[in-house]
Every structure is written in C-alpha cells, then in structure tokens.
Specification:
Its EC number is 3.5.1.14. Helices cover 30% and strands 25% of the residues. Bound molecules: zinc ion.
Amino acid sequence: MTDTAAEHIAVTNFRRYLRVKTVHPEPDYVGAEALLREFGRDLGLEAQVHNVVPGKPIVILTWRGTHGKSLKSLVLNSHIDVVPVFREFWTQDPFAANKVNGRIYARGAQDMKCVGIQYLEAIRVLKLQRGYMPKRDIHVMFVPDEEIGGHDGMEKFIHTPEWTALNAGLVLDEGLGNPENAYKVYHGERAPWWIKVSVKGETGHGSQFIENTPGPKLQRVMAKFLAFRDEQEAQLKAGVHADGRPFSLGDVTTVNLTMLSGGVQWNVIPNQLDMGFDIRISPRMPLAKFRALLDAWCASEEGVSYEFIQLTPCNFVTPLDNNPWWHALQATAKARDVALDPTVFPAATDSRYVRRARVPALGISPMRNTPVLLHCHDEYLDESMFLEGLDFYTALLPRLDEVVDPTAEDPKLWTVEC
Ligand SMILES: [Zn+2]
C-alpha cells in the first residue's frame, strides 16, 4: 500500500509495532515481546522481562545513566495491549497500519503504541545520533493488560522487588489526544466507586397504604444522590481554576444511577429494593468526606445500607506546585512553543498504581489539534503529529535527566493522598 523506503525509521517502527495484534481478549504478547527486544537490541539497551503473571510480560529496556543508583531513575511507561475493534466500522484494516494521506490507521495508533515508540526513538536520536550520556537510568517500560484494569500488569508489578530495583523518581505514562492546540498533562485521576444501596421495609398487599415500605424510602435516598449529582454538574459548568482555566470532568465527582432491581410480583410490595451507582470521585473531594456523605444519605432512612461492588481505597495525585519534574516539562513545552493543559484524568490508567506506590506520575500523550480517537473506529494518528511527539520527548528527556533538586530524589514528596 505504501512505500516505507523513504519513511522515517521511527514511523516504520511505529507501524511494525501496530501490526502486532496485541488486541484483547487474546493479545499477542509473545510477538510484542520479541519485537520490543529487537528494538532494544538495535539501540543497545539492556532488556529485562518479568512475567509477574505467566504469559503477561513486563518488558523493560534500560539506558544506563552515569550516576547509577545515586540518582532516581526515569521510567517511561506505556501499555502493550489495545482494545477490540468492530471491523465492520473500519474503513482500513485495524492491524495493517496503512498510511493514507499522512494518517496512520490502526488500533493503538493513539492509545498508546505511539508513545512507546516515541520514547525509544527519542533514545535513538539522543544516544546514537547525539552521543548524549544520561546521568539517570532511563527505563522504557512496556506493560500488559492496562485496558482490562492492569490487575495482572502494573497493579501486581509495583509490589515486586524488580519494581523497587528500578529506583523510580518519576513515571511518565499515557494521556489523551486533544482537539485543542495544547498537550494535556494528567497529574491525578478520579477514584471509581461502584456501590449497591439496599432499601428494606415493610411488605404487604399492593392495594394498601402500608407504612415504611421500601419504595418511598428508595425515592428519598435516591433524591439525595441525585441532588449531589446536580450540584456537581453545576460546578462543572461554572467552576474555574485559580489560573482561569474552566473546570473539566476530572474536577468534579460524577454520580450515576446505573442499576435498579427488586420486586417479586405485581401486587406484592417487596421487602427490599436495590439501586446501584457508578461514582467517580474527583481528587478535589477527599474520599473520607465523600464516604461521610454516603453514610449520612443512607442513615437518613431506617433500613437502608450499602455495599461496595468496587472500592478504590485511596487516591493519590502528583502535585504540580514547586514540582521540579513539572517545571522541566513546562520548560520543554515553552521552548517548543507548545501549550500544556494540566488536568485530572476523567477515567483510570496505570498511573493510579504508580502513585499508590508513592512515585509521582505524569500522563501525557503528545497529540494536539488531534481528535480523540482512543477506542474509536478508524483510530489514526497523523504521521506529522507522531514525529512532533518524538521531537518533544527528544527535548524532554535531557531536561528531566538534568533536574537538580533534592526533592526530585524523594518521590514520596510528589504524591499526595486525597
Ligand atoms: Zn491507554
């Protein structure tokens, strides 16, 4: 379809990686590991592969720094896996990585094989072309299973001695594309809680006015949840940060009624009705404070209890004020005349596990003026934007490497519990 002879080697390698079908439910991790090892060999990087769960490799390609363990390392993380496709809705083969009018079409083009290759190709430029010698160890890490929650990938890896041995000071991870003219930078995430609220009460014949039945109580408790939802939605529309940026989804807590169940027969008042909520708690709302609200709403009626279907027990953010890593990122963007838009991720990424391990993480996928196509049909990335991102990392890595600030060597300072 296209001639790769005149193509930038970074683009060729990007397309090769896109052609490995690391798509759920049966990602080709064997094929991906082999290709990543090859890329590592080409660049003269040390390779280690950890199968924390058999068949689910964590591939780490390391560029050794001159200062060894005396300085914290940089970990450049990306996930290997991609989400499934609905082939009938694609105009291109999602695993051919065809280039059409400068657009590279493939599942994973934005989420996030672009970033994994940009890290490696930035090292090619710095190491092989410019002879740069990093002070810090730089680990390019490729993890499995992020798209299905990261439970057999990053979540387990942060509890291993191999993770500790990385001596991480900062992890770069994924962000999102942005239709606006700025790179989004994510320094925190919302905490997902799924809860089931059970309302118990008197039962009886459907023809009577019986006191204390579940239906009216459920209605009153539900009203409390939904009033909070309205309040948060209003904040999203009106809220403004101190620096003038309007609020985004990550700045507010969403509460959505997603399940309703109960009843046995049309003429019988049931003794229990249940409702389920999908709640995403913003770092602006302390988890303990939201828990107290939940307790109060449920305690407002007799016979109401709740249980967690999914509980995120803690949530950490990477603070940006006075953060030397963030300053290095800002300086890089400024020198390249690129605007940054720091914000909170509306959903979840592997960064939550990293921050929980008390290492700061910043999520950035350098794509601006680009429609957000992750998980969409016809996912593509413009070749020119891919190469811009490569240049960005080529400029960023030395700036991060050369951060001189004692606080950068103490990662715990750059994760704050909310
Ligand atoms: Zn992703």
